[in-house]
Design brief:
This protein has 544 residues and is α+β, with helices and mostly antiparallel strands. Helix content is 36%, strand content 26%. The chain contains 16 helices and 24 strands. Strands 1, 2, 3, 4, 5 and 6 form a six-stranded mixed beta sheet that branches. Strands 9-8-7-12-11-10 form a six-stranded antiparallel beta sheet, with helices on both faces. A hairpin with a 5-residue loop joins strand 14 (325-331) and strand 15. Helix 4 runs parallel beside helix 10 (259-296) and helix 5 packs antiparallel against helix 10. 38% of the residues are buried. Residues 1-8 and 536-544 have low confidence and may be disordered. Residues 307-527 form the PPM-type phosphatase domain. InterPro entries: Bact_Sigma-Reg, GAF-like_dom_sf, PPM-type-like_dom_sf, PPM-type_phosphatase-like_dom.
C-alpha cells in the first residue's frame, strides 16, 4: 500500500460537495476502511464498473472481483479483464482510509495488456515444459505437475492416475504447503462422471465441476476446497493414450475459472499429458529391462570341494547390463561341476534374448539327462537353433571333477568356441585345442571333444572374443589380441581363480580406455594348490 505525502490536495469542503466533485472524475474511486472493506463510499464511475458495491459492505468477489482478488494477494497494483473491460487499478491511503483508484484502459492499452498477458502465459508454459521434462521418473513428474499449477491456476491440485485394476492412485498439492497421496476405488471416481471421463480420455476440453459433483470425491479433494464454487477437471493424454486427470481447485477468495483460465489449463494439460506419458513409458521400459537383467545375468558361481571358480562379466551395453555372452556352472552329482560357456553373434538385446534361450535349453537338458552327454547336447541345441531361425552361437560345455591326488580332470566339447587356455604350474600358458563348428550354421555339424588334467595350482581360462577383439591402445584401433591375453594370463601365477578373472577384465578395460567394446565374459576353473607350495604361499599372502 502506498502512502501519499507532500503535494497532496486540500479536502476542506463539505462531504456532500466532495462526493459531487468525485463524481466528476473519470477514474473509479472506492474509499474503504481497509483494502477489502467495509466500503465508505464510491463515485459514479465506480458504480458503473462495480454495480454490486454497497456502502458498509465488504469488497467481495461478487461486488468487485478485481479489488477483492488484489486485496487477497496484497497487491498494490493490478491489471485484469472484468466484464468485457480491461481494468487497471492501484491502491493508496489518504486520511487513514484506503482508496482504490481504477480506470478502464484504452484499446491500445488493452492490446498491450493482452500482449503482456500472452507473454506471461507463454513463460508459464515454457517453465512447465522445462520442469516436467527435467526427469523421466514417473513419480517425480507427477509431484512436479501438481506443484506447477499452484498458485498460477489454482490453490490446490489433484492428479488422479490411470486405474490399475479396481483402484488407482492420486497425488495432491495445496492448499499452502500441504502434500499428500493415496489410493481410491474406481467406483468412487465414477460417481463424478466428468472426472471419470477425463481419466478415461473422453473429456477433450477442460470442464467446470459443480459443488454437488465434488461431493463424491471426499477421499481425494480437501473439504475446505471441495465446497468451493471453482473447480476444473482436465484430462491428461498424449497420442490418445490416457495419462491421468488433473483437478484444479480455487478457494472462495479467488474468481471462478474464466475462458482465459480454461484455455491456459488446456494448453498446460497438453504438455503435462505428454510428460506423464513419456515418464510412464520410460518406467515400463526400465521395469522390462530390469526383468531382463535379472533373468539373463549369470548366476552366482557355486561352491565345489576341490575346485576354485572365478568369473567376470561386462556387457557391451553396460547401461542395460544384458549381453550375448553367457555361462553357467552347476554342482554335479558325480562330484565337481558341469559348465557351459558361449557367445551369440552380435550384441545388445537381440543377442541377449538368444543367449537366454540357449542357456535355458542347456539347463533343461542337464535336468533331464542322467549322465552328461556333451556332444549329444550340442547336436540337439544345433537342431533347435536351426528350426527357430536363430543367429549363430559358439559354445563349449563340459565338466570338471576333482581327483584324489588334488588334480582336476576336465572334459570339454566345443561348438566353434575359442580354445581354452591353461596356466600351468611352471608359469607357461598352453592352449587346449578342441575344434568344432558353430551352432545354428549347418544341419549336420561336427563337434570336437577332448580332456585335460589340471595339476594342483593350475588354472583353465574360458573367454569370449570380446577380450581378444577389444580395440584400444595408443591409436584406439589396435586389438588386444591373443598374445597380450597369453602374457596377461602368464602374469597371474599363484593367484586364485576369482582374482585371475578380475585381473584379466581389468587389463582389458584399461586397454579399451572407455571406448565402445563387445561383450566381455571370463570363466576360470582352478585346481587348489597343495599346502606348503609356492602357489599356496602366494595365495595366503594375497588373502592377507
Amino acid at each position: 500500500m502506498t502512502e501519499d505525502s507532500g503535494g497532496g490536495g486540500i479536502w476542506g469542503c463539505a462531504p456532500a460537495q466532495l462526493g459531487e466533485l468525485l463524481d466528476l472524475v473519470d477514474e473509479a474511486v472506492v474509499i474503504c476502511d481497509r483494502a477489502d472493506g467495509p466500503v465508505r463510499g464510491f463515485n459514479r464511475a465506480a458504480a458503473r464498473l462495480f454495480p454490486g458495491l454497497r456502502p458498509g459492505s465488504p469488497v467481495s468477489m461478487s461486488a468487485a472481483a478485481p479489488l477483492a482478488r488484489a486485496a487477497a494477494q496484497q497487491a498494490e497494483h493490478f491489471s485484469t479483464a472484468y466484464e468485457g473491460r480491461g481494468l487497471s487499478g492501484r491502491l493508496h491511503t489518504a486520511g487513514g482510509l484506503t482508496v482504490w483508484l481504477v480506470h478502464q484502459v484504452s484499446g491500445a492499452q488493452e492490446a498491450e495488456a493482452a500482449l503482456a498477458h500472452e507473454r506471461e502465459m507463454s513463460a508459464f508454459l515454457e517453465e512447465t515444459t522445462r520442469r516436467l521434462g527435467a526427469s523421466l521418473h514417473h513419480g517425480r513428474t507427477v509431484h512436479a505437475l501438481v506443484d506447477i499449477v499452484i498458485p498460477k491456476l489454482a490453490d490446490a491440485s489433484v492428479v488422479v492416475l490411470p486405474a490399475s485394476g479396481r483402484c488407482t492412485h492420486w497425488h495432491r498439492a495445496g492448499p499452502g504447503d500441504a502434500r499428500c497421496s493415496g489410493e481410491v476405488a474406481v467406483e468412487t471416481l465414477e460417481r463424478a462422471p466428468k472426472v471419470a471421463d477425463a481419466l478415461y480420455g473422453l473429456q477433450p476440453r477442460p470442464t467446470v465441476l459443480r459443488p454437488q459433483e465434488m461431493d463424491a470425491l471426499d477421499e481425494v479433494v480437501p473439504g475446505e476446497l471441495g465446497q468451493g464454487e471453482a473447480a476444473l477437471v482436465v484430462q491428461l493424454t498424449a497420442g490418445g493414450v490416457p495419462a491421468g486427470a488433473l483437478i484444479m481447485l480455487r478457494g472462495a477468495e479467488r474468481a471462478r475459472f474464466d475462458d482465459a483460465d480454461i484455455d491456459l489449463a488446456h494448453r498446460f494439460a497438453v504438455r503435462a499429458g505428454l510428460a506423464l506419458t513419456t515418464a510412464a513409458l520410460y518406467s515400463q521400459q526400465a521395469h522390462t529391462i530390469a526383468v531382463l537383467q535379472t533373468s539373463m545375468a549369470p548366476e552366482p558361481l557355486p561352491s565345489a570341494d576341490g575346485l576354485r571358480l572365478g568369473a567376470a562379466y561386462r556387457p557391451a551395453a553396460e547401461a542395460l547390463r544384458i549381453s550375448g555372452d553367457f555361462y553357467h556352472v552347476a554342482p554335479s552329482t558325480a562330484g565337481g561341476v558341469t559348465f557351459f560357456f558361449g557367445d551369440v553373434s552380435g550384441k545388445g538385446a537381440e543377442a541377449a534374448v538368444v543367449a537366454g534361450q540357449v542357456r535355458q535349453s542347456m539347463r533343461t537338458l542337464a535336468m533331464v539327462e542322467r549322465e552328461p552327454e556333451p556332444l549329444g547336447d550340442l547336436r540337439l541345441l544345433n537342431d533347435l537353433m536351426i528350426s527357430a531361425g536363430h543367429r549363430f552361437t559358439t559354445l563349449v560345455t563340459g565338466s570338471a571333477r576333482p581327483c584324489d591326488d588334488g588334480s582336476v580332470q576336465v572334459e570339454i566339447a566345443s561348438g566353434g568356441h575359442l580354445s581354452p587356455l591353461v596356466l600351468r604350474g611352471d608359469g607357461k600358458v598352453a592352449e587346449i585345442v578342441c575344434e568344432g563348428m558353430l551352432l545354428g550354421a549347418v544341419p549336420d555339424p561336427s563337434f570336437g571333444r577332448t580332456e585335460c588334467r589340471l595339476d594342483p595350482g593350475e588354472l583353465m581360462l574360458l573367454y569370449s572374443d570380446g577380450v581378444t577383439e577389444a580395440r584400444g591402445g595408443a591409436s584406439g584401433r589396435e586389438i588386444y589380441g591373443d598374445e597380450r591375453l597369453v602374457d596377461a594370463l602368464a602374469s597371474c601365477g599363484g593367484m586364485q581363480a576369482p582374482s585371475v578373472a578380475e585381473r584379466l577384465e581389468l587389463l582389458t578395460t584399461e586397454w579399451l580406455a572407455g571406448r565402445p567394446h563387445d561383450d566381455i565374459s571370463i570363466l576360470t576353473l582352478q585346481a587348489p594348490p597343495r599346502r606348503g607350495s609356492v602357489s599356496a604361499a602366494a595365495r595366503d599372502s594375497e588373502g592377507s
